[in-house]
Amino acid sequence: MTGQPVSGGGPGEEPHAGAAPLPGPAPGRPRVPRRPGRPDVFTFGETMVALRGSGPLKLGGTMRVSVAGAESNVAIGLARLGHDVRWAGAVGDDEAGQLVLRTLRAEGVEVSGAATDPDAPTGLLLFEPRLPEVTRVHYYRAGSAGSRLAADTVDRAFRAAPPRVLHLTGITPALSPAARAAALRALQLAREHGSLVCLDVNFRARLWTAGEAAAVLREWMPFVDVLIASDDELPLCLPEDGDEAEDGDGPEEGHGPEEGNGPEDGDGPEATAAASGAGPAGPTADSLASPDSLASPGSLASQARALLDLGVGEVVVKLGAAGATAFTCGGSLHQPAKSVQAVDAVGAGDAFVAGYLSALLDGEGPAGCLERAVTTGAFAVASPGDWEGAPTRAELGMLGAPPGTVVR
After folding, report:
1. CA distance 175 to 45
2. What is the CA radius of gyration of the chain?
3. Which one of 52, 95, 181, 220 is at 20 to 30 Å from 340 when CA atoms are compared?
4. Ranked by mean pLDDT, which of 217-221, 243-247, 388-392, 395-399 comes out on top?
5. Residue with more model confidence, 323 or 5
6. Would you say residue 164 has pLDDT above 80?
């Protein structure tokens, strides 16, 4: 692990105890390095031009133009909350690439480390609403500039301003061997410079198999300080004898993005109102994992314990309508979902991550991190777009306002 654990806990305190950690730093919990002058967060990945239709694509009609990408969604969410964020990726030498860079700059994200590829286009993403609560996503990214991101681009951008936190997703290594090498280089640099590492699993079945993902993610676990995943993604990170992934062979050389359609970067199993900590209310506020559940074989808590034993400092699990739970060596803490009127679930998981990292950077304990995460996730699903509804710091309290409130 690259982050430094926070000391705490009384004499004789058992790790993995069933009791929830007290508010504030938890025993063994990763701490964001205090490095004056460093940017708060560095992240990178593929960001595409996104076209959003008003109905079935085969019927034509108008489309709204924007951009979308898991890592850039998180970057924008953090920038709106007042953090110093840098994004590095590769875009094509085209108008679409200029839109990506212009949008990120306008949102306060530093993009000087990004690369422009003259030999490949910027990726394309199409959103197709089919039912009031069902949207189909089609993406065209095979051979895109983003999939060709080089390790030296990441190396230069990282070394130019080593961050306090490196944020990665499991999407980037799935894009191509080159992108996978870039992600591994970033992990090595984070260790070299003492940056805390946050990984959002973000498994994409259209990009690689569960077995391929598990082979890579298992190797990454010793580098990871904060792991964020939906409950069905945790097995991809567990040791081989405990995982449930199929097709256990490692990634093949040359495996890259598929031609055709599939979930985009900000979408997927976690990008729903419930999974982001928004939607129908979950369990009673601040309900905790019981000692029995922590000891139950195959339970989420036992999976989290196995990851903590590997050296991961904190495991954060998104639990759909039940909210989210954070596991540390000091125990576990659960945060129920926020109830909101869902408008667009895309990008909710990325908003959750932005909120969690924001609070972690502010020195909050597990309770504060979970509260902010479910709040930012709820903002995301209450507005259309991947990142457009991300709140500013001053807006965080608006979620609890009674219906009909007018802010003057």
Report:
1. 9
2. 20
3. 52
4. 217-221
5. 323
6. yes
Question: Smallest Cα–Cα separation from 358: which of 202, 235, 198?
Answer: 198
pLDDT digits (tens, 9 = 90+) for 256-310: 333 333 333 333 333 334 445 544 333 322 333 333 333 343 489 999 999 999 9
Tokens of 64: 């709204």
Q: Give every strand in the sheet of 48-53, ordered side by side.
A: 63-68, 48-53, 124-131, 134-140
Q: Rounded distance, CA 242 to CA 237, Å?
A: 9
Cβ(78)–Cβ(46) below 8 Å: no
In this structure, the number of other CB atoms found within 10 A of the CB of residue 8 comes to 16
Identify each DSSP E strand in 170-293 by its residue range.
Answer: 196-200, 226-230
Supply the residues annotated as catalytic: 350
pTM: 0.81
Which tokens is 198 given? 């946050």
The C-alpha atoms of residue 375 and residue 390 are separated, in whole angstroms, by 10
